[in-house]
Design brief:
The complex is a heterodimer of chains A (117) and B (109). By secondary structure, chain A is mainly beta. Chain A contains one helix and eleven strands, in the order βββββββββαββ. Chain A is globular and about 40 Å long. Chain B has no helices and eleven strands. Classes of the chains: A mainly beta (117), B mainly beta (109). At the A-B interface, helix 1 and strand 10 of A face strand 4, strand 5 and strand 9 of B.
Chain lengths: 117, 109
């Protein structure tokens, strides 16, 4: 089945530094990938839609200059949290859209738990 | 009105109980429906797709009522390992998936 690999699983960084999170589709090509954020006891919130070879589409309220998304190939999208602050601490999850998404839904990466100190 | 709404929960049930989750969606053009399960501090995982005719997978039964824009998930003979948050997911035609807020289930020994 479709597998999405997300790395790193967890990261602790100092306030003001940047963190890059990678999302790879391992056995399928994903023209579209999605980045979500989830705070404790809250639902997944879509941050942006990443399209291969073009600019990402950000949801309202998400700062595109703070959350940089690059989707340079059909199997890799990256999210960079720039100048991270403690309020950016959250669980970040990516998902990828494969050809059978209508039948089987999205495949999610295992998530990255970011803690900014 | 939110696009996808679910029972607020949490549901605390004893082992062996039958529990039902409800979900409603607002976009009548929605074409695909899913139930996902999310364990604490983990990513959501697909539990089952929901078909118009209803479908069953072991102890899990999903139903779809397009006229009422309503989806349900029934879990029979619940196990301790069923404890998780259950997410209703709707795919409006031509749009991204929309996640419900989730309903947390705790199965108690």
């Amino acid at each position: 089945g479709a597998v999405v690999s997300q790395h790193p699983s967890w990261v602790i960084c100092k306030s003001g530094t940047s963190v890059k999170i990678e999302c790879r589709s391992l056995d399928f090509q994903a023209t579209t990938m999605f980045w979500y954020r989830q705070f404790p006891k809250q639902s997944l919130m879509l941050m942006a839609t990443s399209n291969e070879g073009s600019k990402a589409t950000y949801e309202q309220g998400v700062e595109k200059d703070k959350f940089l998304i690059n989707h340079a190939s059909l199997t890799l999208s990256t999210l960079t949290v720039t100048s991270a602050h403690p309020e950016d601490s959250s669980f970040y999850i990516c998902s990828a859209e494969g050809q059978l998404v209508v039948a089987y839904g999205y495949t999610f990466g295992s998530g990255t738990r970011l803690t900014v100190v | 009105r939110k696009e996808v709404e679910q029972d607020p929960g949490p549901f605390n049930v004893p082992e062996g109980a039958t529990v039902a989750f409800n979900c409603t969606y607002s976009n009548s053009a929605s074409q695909s429906f899913f139930w996902y399960r999310q364990d604490c501090r983990k990513e959501p995982k697909l539990l089952m797709s929901v078909y118009s005719s209803g479908n069953e997978d072991g102890r899990f039964t999903a139903q779809l009522n397009r006229a009422s824009q309503y989806i349900s998930l029934l879990i029979r003979d619940s196990k301790l390992s069923d404890s998780a948050t259950y997410l209703c997911v709707v795919n409006p035609y031509g749009q991204n998936f929309v996640f419900g807020p989730g309903t947390r289930l705790s199965v108690l020994p």
